[in-house]
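User: I'm preparing a small set of examples for a lab meeting where we compare how different chains pack in three dimensions. I only have the primary sequence for this one, and I'd like the structure in token form so I can line it up with the others. Please keep the answer compact; I'll paste it straight into my notes.
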Amino acid sequence: MQYEFDVTDHIGCIAVAPEVLIGANWDSRDFYVWDHTGHLRRKVPNPTANAYQDIKFVDGRLVASGLLPGRNGAIDWLDYPSLRLIRRVTVGQTSRGVPYTSEGMAIRGDRILLLPEDSPSRLFQFSVRGARVSR
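Assistant: Understood. Below is the structure token output for the 135-residue chain.
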């Protein structure tokens, strides 16, 4: 399915949910919720200090990876539609000193795949069982 509509902000990440599209602007200061035709349903200030780089809609919740103040990486689980933080897992850095949550993220079952670095890129896979993320 293809979506196209104008937005008067810089949208840095977006998630597709069954009834809506959920996006966040630069540094995720605000969340936007649109229907699938592009009609803005609501704009919500980010309830966390995490500057999300990527978001996914999984099992009725948002999973969002990004950077906390001080450039520490974290993956948050947010209740939808309230956007209330329900879980946070902090993550470390690659051997190149880049936080794992600096760029793209994919989720497959209990695995999170992160692509944090620019050229040359490396893909990191983590398990999200329990409260810790381990490689």
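A couple of notes for your slides: The two ends are 34 Å apart (CA to CA). Residues 53 and 67 are 8 Å apart (CA to CA).

User: Perfect, thanks.
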